[in-house]
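Good morning N.,

You mentioned wanting to compare the apo and holo forms, so I went ahead and generated the holo version with 26V. This is what I fed in:
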Amino acid sequence: IKDLVSPYLSSDYKHLQKNIAYHLEYTLPQTTRNLNLFGTYLATSYTVRDRLLQLSHDTQKYYTEKKVKTACYISIEYLMGRFLQNAVLNLNLEEEYGEALAGLGYGLEDIYDQEQDPALGNGGLGRLAACFLDTLATHNYPAWGYGLRYNYGLFKQSVDVEGDQVEKTDVWLQFPYPFMIENHFIRIPIGFYGSIETYVDQKTKGTRFKWHPSEYVIAQANDILIPGYGTDNTNTLRLWSCRPIQELDFKKFSLGDFKGASEKRLNAENITNVLYPNDNEMAGKELRFKQQYFLVAATLQDIIRRLKEQKRTIYELPDFAAVQLNDTHPTLAIPELLRVLLDEEMLTWDEAWDITQRTFSYTNHTILPEALERWPVKLISHLLPRHMQLIEAINWKFLENFSENNKESGKLRKKLSLIENSRDTLVRMAWLAIVGSHKVNGVSDIHTNILKDKVFKDFHKIYPKKFINVTNGVTPRRWLHACNPKLSELITATLNSNEWIYDLTHLSKLREHADNEEFQLKWAAIKLFNKKKLQKYVKRELKIDIGYKDVVYDIQIKRIHEYKRQLMNIIGSISYYSDLLKMDPKKRKEMPKRVSFIAGKAAPGYFVAKKIIKLINCVSKVINTDPEIGDVFKVIYLPNYSVTLAELLIPATDVSEHISTPGTEASGTSNMKFVLNGGLILGTLDGANLEIMKNSGEENVFAFGITKEKVDQVKQNNIEKGAYNLMDEKMKNAINLIENGTFGNIENYQGLIEELKGVDRYILGHDFAPYMEAMDRVMQTYQKPQKWWKMSILGCAGSGWLSSDRTIKEYAENIWEIKPCPLPKIE
Ligand code: 26V
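and this is what came out, ligand included:
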């Protein structure tokens, strides 16, 4: 049969054209006689999908034959970005598709531009998952991604005339999304609510339990195929969507329970309707909890089904799949697996617990206390009674075991207990994830140290070997090769090979060119080209005219959050503006020019973050329209930040800001992307900034501020003396401008100002002067092109280590114990 289909997939451009025409005529409600851009994009995408389907079938067959161990990454978010360009590049068909489409009268870029950007994630955590999938396929690791197919992704953001964020529903499925394939054969019933039956096991005479859910929904599989760069291996990202129970093929399941199951509530409510838009703050909504259980219950059934299809026993599960919990959101997988092993597979507790621990590992992505998930026992008992019972059993056994080996006080037991007795009784999900996993990891050196020494200190004492660091990384395919084709070409030409695309350590060879004037000029010319592209975008979308030659493009792009200190950035801009106004006009005109860009969404319920956006927009309006300032300084807020927008911004950046309070940003990953694209970093001693300094050289980063060890002391001082009394004069002056109404009604900003003057939790006041001084260094250095471009090149040359390929190798070797399994090349 393969002989029947493979000629269809030949890749010369004439053939591709025929394939595109075929889909236009027979897949779409369209014909080749009335071509349009969107239709051609769809048809093109279907031809890519055809190729991926075939590769994916070959891949799955090969993995099964080889009986390889697989990594299963469970994440409630995936921030994939557009698919088509990435797939075409990974399949190495860019030239062929370019020619094929040119023949039809279209440019490849315009076709790419038709695609929506699936925003099934909030920020760093979801984007990291997407980078990991690219690496896993590229390096031929047997792996699955599991997640949710939300009907509505992260809201679309715009800004109204008052400068406020406006949210609109992201209806991304209103048009077909050609890269997601509904798999009709994979439909899995998921239960909720109900009761627990207790009975005596005839064989062992022991007590057994069985959960009888009272309501069911179906998890429907939707597959996105993930191509690797320059390999045939093609993995699967399986996203579950929720369907009503009536659509289940009842014959396939043994049905006792479903018959009586009520169809009332859960059928009316679609569990996978919408992505929760808060990052870093636990909302505590019942529907969110259902999403979490729905994800893990479907995923585990799917994994166990695949295990059994291979005629392997449940005891082999830990050798069949390594399951990674991306933050605590999928932690219910632990009691769910335990339930399946105990109640359905009839294992003993010791057997079941051993399998569970060997199967799971957990990654922590944040230490902000408000983000650490804790769910009410009441809610869990109601929704998942058997799981609550199991969590209590896990807790009891863990505490007993621990007390046996350790005659510690009740105080410590309280701290270690998976169940917290505060005003409400709550399950600490991170504690459950730690106890149920064999490895727990942080995402940068500093972050892991904080986990060990502070957040999970007591657990670290009990299980010192369980805690390891795996510093994040980013895929160089999307974040250099695809988004910055000119730089990619220059690097390939300079290194005389494109090996760096899958082994980024090769970039170190750029070091020998860092001082070379000719090379520097080429490097700088590419930056200028990318800046021009951004300048055009700003003109088209925002109707603002900015320069790009001899202008520093300074950017801060990330979710808006107090700890990320966008507020310090904008107060810095106010202060700089005020200094400029005080200058002699002649001198002002000669000042080095800068455009300060900020982009990022605020969680709709995060009042303070929304006020920060408003302030940025109001400041921007005043500065950009002040004739005294002209083109010396501009502040630009770019609405609706997305992966696609990042792909435009990052290559165009001269300097990017990563200025979180030390100890708060677990890692950061955009910092890595900027360095990769020759952008310099203005940053604090936090997260991955520190490791970038180590690898690219301290002298190539504009670092400022205190170490995390000193933060507590500063905070304490703020509390004792009042932050305002300790505040830098220039910052006081800037705040004064806000208060006197220069940027609109002060009432809007009262909350922001009060916090800064009072406690200033994120110590903006303390760090303001060094921040301004560092920005000054940036501007001074930019006036010395040879120095600047040398820093830029050396930064990039040291970034080989920041590839997610390195990250995944560490996960594979130190946590998952999986090996690459490349498909044999077919001649
Ligand atoms: C947390 C929560 C808390 C409960 C409510 C909903 C919700 C949604 C998302 C999150 C995840 C926030 C954590 C996160 O995105 N952390 C980021 O992870 C990046 C990848 O490791 C890392 O680079 C960033 O520093 C870190 O902020």
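The CA atoms of residues 250 and 258 lie 8 Å apart.

Happy to go through it together on a call whenever suits you.

Best,
F.
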